[in-house]
Design brief:
The complex is a heterodimer. Chain A is about 75% helix and about 0% strand. Chain A has eleven helices and no strands. Chain B is an alpha/beta fold. Chain B is built from eleven helices and 13 strands. Classes of the chains: A mainly alpha, B alpha/beta. At the A-B interface, helix 1 and helix 6 of A face helix 3 of B.
C-alpha cells in the first residue's frame, strides 16, 4: 500500500498526467459536440444500426493516451535516473512494479470514469436530443463498463512495454505499434483467431462485434488482461535482473 | 564486522573491465574518502554496494549481507548518486514525498531534511529551475531521509561553491561524529582531504591503497631543496655521493637520498655557499599524482 501511495504521488506531482487526461477529455468533449452534434444521424448510427459506436467518438485518442501514460509510468524513471532512488527504497524491485501496475489500473479507471461522465453527459444527450435511438440502459452500462476496464488494462499494457523497452520514445512507439498494428494483423487471418489479440479484444470490450465473433465481452476482458499481465510480468522479470547503471 | 565491504568485486561490461578484483572494508564512525580518477570504477563500486547492479564476480556487502537483503533500506543506507537524477517537472519536496511514502516515512521528516540541506525556500519549486548545487543538496536530502547509519555519496562536492563545500564538510564530519559510516567519492583529493579520516584509492578498477590521510602524505617522496652559489659543482659532487638530483620549478636543486647534514658538510668541503637548505614533502596533490601515475590513470568511463 505504501508503494502504491508512492506511485500515486509520482503520477500526480508532474503535469504530464493531468495534461494528458485533460487533453483527452477536452478532445472527447469537442468530438462529441462536433460529430454527434453535426453529423447526420444515419452516419452516427452507422451500418450496424445500433448507433452506439458513433456515440463513443473520440475513444481512440483516449485509448492511445492511456497506453502512453502506462509507458510513462516506468520510462520517466529510467529517463530521469530516478530508478536508483526508487529501487534503493525497495531493493527487491518487483514490488515497485506491482505498485506501478496498481497505479496504472487506478488511473485507467479514473480516466475511464471521467470519459464516461463526459461522453454520457454530452454525446448521449446530444444524440438523443437529435432523435437518435439509443440502446437499452443496461447495454449502455455494459459498454461503459467495458470502456473503463479497457482504459485500465491499456495503461497496464503500456507499463509492460515500457518496462521491457525502457527508452521512453522507443517504448511509446513500440506500444502503439504493437497494439494498433501488430496485434490487429491476426484479424486478417481466417477464422476467429484475431479475437484473441489485444486490438480486437478491446473492440469486443467496447461492445463491437465484428464478423463471426464468438467472444463475450467478459471473455474479451480476460483476454486483454492476460496480454497486459503477461507484458508486465516479462517487464518485471527483466527489471529485477537488469543492472541500473545509467 | 565492517559496515561496508567489497570482496574480490569485479564488474565487466562486455569487454570493458570497470572494476577488477577489488576488496576493501569501510568502518563506522569515520569519513572514508573514495578516490580515483574519472572512470576508475568508483561509481560502479558504489552502485554494487547499493544493490543497483550485479557484480560479475565477487560480492558487495552491507553490514555483512547483500544489499538486497536489507530490511529497512532507507533507514540503513542513504545514497546520493548523481545530482541529475530527478524528474525536472517535479518539485524537490514532491520528489522526497514519493520516496518517503514508499519507505513509510512521515512527511514531517521531508520538511526536516529540506531544512537540514537549506532548501526549504525552494522546496515547492520544480527541480528544472534548480542550480547544480541545489540538486546536490536535494540528493543529500534524499540520502538523509531515513536517518540512515551509512551514507554513500558519489561526488557530492560537484557543483558546490566554496561555502557549499564547507557546509558539506561540516555535515559529513557531524554525521561521522554521530557514529555513522560515510563513504564519499571524489576525483579531486583536496575535496576530501579536509574531511576524510581514511582514504581508499582506486585506479583502473583496482585498489591502489587503503590508508589514513596522515600515512598517505607521510609516504610521499621526501627531498632536500637546495640553492647554492655554484649549483653545477655542487650538483656533480652530490651525484658522486649517491644523491639523486632533480630540479624544482624555480631552478633550485631537489636532492633525494642524502640528508640535510650530508649535503651541508659536502657543500662546506667544496667551499660552496648555501643560500637555502630545506626539507620538502610532496604536496597532497603531487602525492596523489605520484600514486595514480602522472597521467592520473584517466580513461574513458564504460
Amino acid at each position: 500500500m505504501n508503494l502504491l501511495h508512492s506511485e500515486w504521488i509520482k503520477l500526480f506531482t508532474t503535469r504530464t498526467t493531468w495534461v494528458m487526461i485533460g487533453i483527452g477529455l477536452l478532445c472527447e468533449a469537442l468530438f462529441a459536440g462536433l460529430f454527434v452534434g453535426l453529423a447526420s444521424i444515419s452516419d452516427i448510427v452507422g451500418s450496424d444500426g445500433e448507433g452506439f459506436e458513433g456515440v463513443l467518438t473520440g475513444l481512440g485518442l483516449l485509448m492511445t493516451l492511456m497506453l502512453v501514460l502506462g509507458v510513462l509510468v516506468i520510462t520517466t524513471e529510467f529517463r530521469h535516473g530516478t530508478t536508483g532512488s526508487t529501487f534503493l527504497v525497495t531493493p527487491k524491485r518487483w514490488p515497485v512494479l506491482v505498485a506501478k501496475l496498481g497505479a496504472c489500473l487506478l488511473v485507467g479507471v479514473l480516466a475511464g470514469l471521467l470519459f464516461v461522465a463526459v461522453n454520457g453527459g454530452l454525446a448521449i444527450s446530444i444524440f438523443s436530443g437529435r432523435g437518435g435511438e439509443l440502446p437499452s440502459t443496461g447495454r449502455i452500462a455494459e459498454i461503459y463498463a467495458g470502456v473503463v476496464v479497457s482504459f485500465a488494462l491499456l495503461a497496464a499494457f503500456g507499463l509492460g512495454i515500457g518496462a521491457i523497452v525502457r527508452n521512453q520514445v522507443g517504448a511509446i512507439i513500440a506500444a502503439i505499434a504493437v497494439f494498433f498494428v501488430v496485434s490487429s494483423l491476426p484479424e486478417l487471418l481466417p477464422g476467429t483467431i484475431g479475437e484473441y489479440f489485444p486490438a480486437q479484444a478491446v473492440g469486443s470490450l467496447h461492445g463491437r462485434v465484428e464478423g463471426d465473433g464468438t467472444l463475450t465481452q467478459v471473455g474479451a476482458g480476460f483476454i486483454l488482461a492476460g496480454w497486459s499481465l503477461l507484458l508486465v510480468a516479462v517487464g518485471t522479470a527483466l527489471t529485477v535482473k537488469r543492472d541500473l547503471s545509467e | 564486522m565492517p559496515e561496508l565491504e567489497v570482496r574480490n568485486l569485479s564488474k565487466r561490461y562486455g569487454s570493458t573491465v570497470a572494476v577488477n578484483d577489488l576488496s576493501f572494508a569501510v568502518e563506522g564512525g569515520r569519513v572514508t574518502g573514495f578516490l580515483g580518477p574519472n572512470g576508475a570504477g568508483k561509481t560502479t563500486t558504489m552502485r554494487a554496494l547499493l544493490g543497483l547492479l550485479r557484480p560479475s564476480s565477487g560480492e558487495a556487502l552491507v553490514e555483512g549481507r547483500p544489499p538486497a537483503a536489507m530490511e529497512r533500506p532507507l533507514h540503513t543506507i542513504g545514497a546520493a548518486l548523481e545530482a541529475t537524477a530527478f524528474h525536472p517537472g517535479r518539485s524537490g519536496r514532491n520528489h522526497l514525498r514519493g520516496l518517503a511514502a514508499a519507505a513509510r516515512i512521515p512527511t514531517s521528516r521531508v520538511d526536516e531534511v529540506l531544512e537540514m540541506v537549506e532548501l526549504t525556500g525552494a522546496a515547492h519549486r520544480r527541480v528544472k529551475g534548480y542550480s547544480l548545487g541545489m540538486r546536490q543538496r536535494l540528493a543529500l536530502a534524499a540520502a538523509l531521509l531515513g536517518d540512515p547509519h551509512i551514507l554513500i555519496l558519489d561526488e557530492p562536492a560537484n557543483g558546490l561553491d566554496p561555502q557549499g563545500m564547507r557546509w558539506l564538510r561540516d555535515l559529513l564530519k557531524a554525521q561521522a561524529a554521530g557514529g555513522r559510516t560515510v563513504l564519499v567519492s571524489s576525483h579531486v583529493l583536496s575535496e576530501v582531504a579536509q574531511t576524510a579520516d581514511e582514504l581508499i584509492l582506486i585506479r583502473k578498477g583496482e585498489l591502489v591503497a587503503q590508508t589514513t590521510l596522515a600515512e598517505f602524505t607521510a609516504g610521499g617522496r621526501a627531498a632536500m631543496r637546495v640553492r647554492a652559489a655554484d649549483p653545477e659543482t655542487l650538483n656533480a659532487a652530490l651525484g658522486e655521493r649517491g644523491g639523486k638530483v632533480g630540479h624544482d620549478e624555480d631552478g633550485a636543486l631537489l636532492i633525494e637520498g642524502l640528508s640535510g647534514e650530508e649535503i651541508g658538510v659536502l657543500a662546506l668541503e667544496q667551499g660552496i655557499a648555501l643560500y637555502e637548505l630545506a626539507a620538502q614533502r610532496s604536496s597532497l596533490e603531487a602525492r596523489f599524482l605520484e600514486v595514480m601515475g602522472e597521467d592520473g590513470g584517466e580513461e574513458a568511463a564504460p
